[in-house]
Predict the 3D structure of the following.
Amino acid sequence: MTSMTSWTANDLPDLTGRTVVITGAGRGLGLITARELARAGAHVVLGVRDPGKARHAVADLPGTFDIRPLDVSDLTSVRTFADAWSGDMDILINNAGVMDIPPRAPPTASIYRPPRTTPAPFC
């Protein structure tokens, strides 16, 4: 049995013919994940807020990428992404997150505003 401390992306199985969707894959950990899964043969769909930046980020990477607009804080965007989906999806990596959005406007049916928590004062 291989120790988990020695596992690297080189240990990924052949993912040829598999479709992987990664949210928030335009930069950072999501982009590195997309790169490695594409290197292993997967067709990688990047769900990102800024498709132009994502196209630029993957331009020189080997592999097959499909870049689609997706803002997980906007439920209309999520519905549009989901409704446009057709075909198989073998792996979904929910990398994008919504955190500490300033209270510019109250929550609506289409904009998700996570609840803010405030630590209780010490008594």
The chain is about 25% helix and 15% strand. The helical segments are 28-39, 51-58, 75-84.
